[in-house]
Automatic annotation (TrEMBL):
A Pfam cross-reference name: DUF608
GO molecular function terms attached to this record: beta-glucosidase activity
Domain Glycosyl-hydrolase family 116 catalytic region: start-end pairs: 41-106
Gene Ontology biological process: central nervous system development
Organism, as annotated: Ficedula albicollis
Protein name: Glycosyl-hydrolase family 116 catalytic region domain-containing protein
InterPro entries: GH116_catalytic, Non-lysos_glucosylceramidase
Length: 115
């Protein structure tokens, strides 16, 4: 029944990179879930806001002084992920999706509250 050891011991690849696309996924799941109660259980509002705050702080503000949008991948130590070309890029569709998710999830608040 699969490997019961840590991922690295099982030979599975994983990353600690913070992905800006997570924001888009959170919004997609929460808005399109067939069950709002299931969505709230899987992704509690406090966890969603925490994830968005982290993405904003690391992937937006820590990249190019916060002037270029959200870099696709950022390491927890604030260094852009260079494990692939895509990680160290800014994709406008991801940036728009992330911004839209922040606006939806933080209704009534300024995005500056994430600063």
């Amino acid at each position: 029944m699969g490997c019961q050891r840590p991922l690295e011991e099982c030979g599975m690849w994983f990353s600690t990179s913070l992905l800006s696309t997570l924001g888009a996924f959170l919004s997609f799941w929460r808005k399109r879930s067939p069950s709002p109660s299931l969505s709230a259980q899987v992704f509690p509002k406090s966890h969603v806001l925490s994830a968005l705050r982290t993405i904003f702080e690391k992937n937006v503000l820590s990249f190019a002084g916060g002037t270029m949008g959200a870099v696709n991948g950022m390491r927890p130590d604030g260094v852009p992920d260079t494990s692939s070309v895509q990680s160290n890029e800014v994709w406008i569709g991801v940036v728009y999706s992330l911004a839209a998710t922040m606006i939806q999830e933080v209704s009534g608040y300024s995005l500056l509250t994430f600063c």
